Amino acid sequence: MSEFTPLRSVLYMPSSNAKALEKAKTLPIDAVIFDLEDAVAPDAKPAARDTAAAAVASGEYGRRTLTIRVNGIGTEWHDADLAAAAAAGPDAVVVPKVNSAAEVQQLVAALEKAGAPEHTKLWAMIETPVAILDALAIARASERLSCFVMGTNDLVKELYAEHVPGRAPVLPSLHTALLAARAAGIAILDGVYNDVKNTEGFLAECQQGREMGFDGKTLIHPGQVEGANAAFAPSEQAVEDARGLIQAFEDGQGSGVVTYNGRMVENLHVESARRTLSIDEAIRALQG
Ligand SMILES: CC(C)(COP(=O)(O)OP(=O)(O)OC[C@H]1O[C@@H](n2cnc3c(N)ncnc32)[C@H](O)[C@@H]1OP(=O)(O)O)[C@@H](O)C(=O)NCCC(=O)NCCSC(=O)C[C@H](O)C(=O)O
Ligand SMILES: [Mg+2]
């Protein structure tokens, strides 16, 4: 049994959208974010809060990781959202616009005070300039914090930047958050791709995110699930190469360096290959 939890495809859905809530039960997503923030109109927020909590408790989403995105600190909905989410006990509570280590500690204290079970982690959205500049302190602020979620729409807005193919304006921010997440040993998810009908652009962004090192991508539409699942899983070729590389190293009988398919292999490559195999194993376990 692998300890690795795949987060290739993490789908936001407005908790006020009954059709989307039903649809998500049928999709091969690794995780769901029941949204109470941007995708829910102010009038609909109290009902959406109840719906999200009921969805988590329903047991109808199978093996998927379930999370609730609450409204941000300082908004009129935040306290009630956090209390309801803590009581529902999802796998994680996602908090937008987390800006400091102190905020993480405040959120963790609030979750504990509201009686959140131990398995309910905190996922912090990194989507402001100050969060990028303080990313390492945020990532290390609490053991309960297990994942960064990039909010590239807010980031582009705050930077007065533009959404462009290749994402040059936000790459320094994405890399900084990745460095912080890896230094702290937490997961990190790439931001959403807004143009839901542009499959080619979406797949290019998935590949870019995978190559940069993200664990998976946040999604906004069912049509994006398959592409994300493929992009963030090791390919058959990668799995075969990982097995071959490990075997070649073991056949080297204690030599510190061997070659496999003409390439140098050292222990660090073996560690990467083992990671590839454990991700593959965890994904296969999901498929049952
Ligand atoms: C973008 C959408 C508004 C498009 O909706 P729609 O026009 O209804 O799409 P379709 O008709 O193509 O839908 C086909 C079926 O799929 C279901 N559906 C659609 N979206 C979802 C979803 N997200 N989850 C589950 N199911 C979904 C439809 O109900 C149709 O079902 P059926 O008829 O039974 O076949 C819409 O996709 C949408 O609302 N997406 C989510 C938007 C959202 O959550 N936004 C907030 C998060 S993004 C963000 O804030 C990131 C961050 O903070 C940042 O700063 O970047
Ligand atoms: Mg945002």
Automatic annotation (TrEMBL):
Q: Name one GO molecular function term.
A: lyase activity
Per the record's keyword annotation, is Zinc included, yes or no? no
**Record bears the keyword Nucleotide-binding:** no
Question: Which superkingdom is the protein from?
Answer: Bacteria
What keywords sit in the KW lines? Lyase, Magnesium, Metal-binding
Q: Which residues form the HpcH/HpaI aldolase/citrate lyase domain?
A: 8-222
Identify the cofactor(s): Mg(2+)
Could you tell me what this protein is called? HpcH/HpaI aldolase/citrate lyase family protein
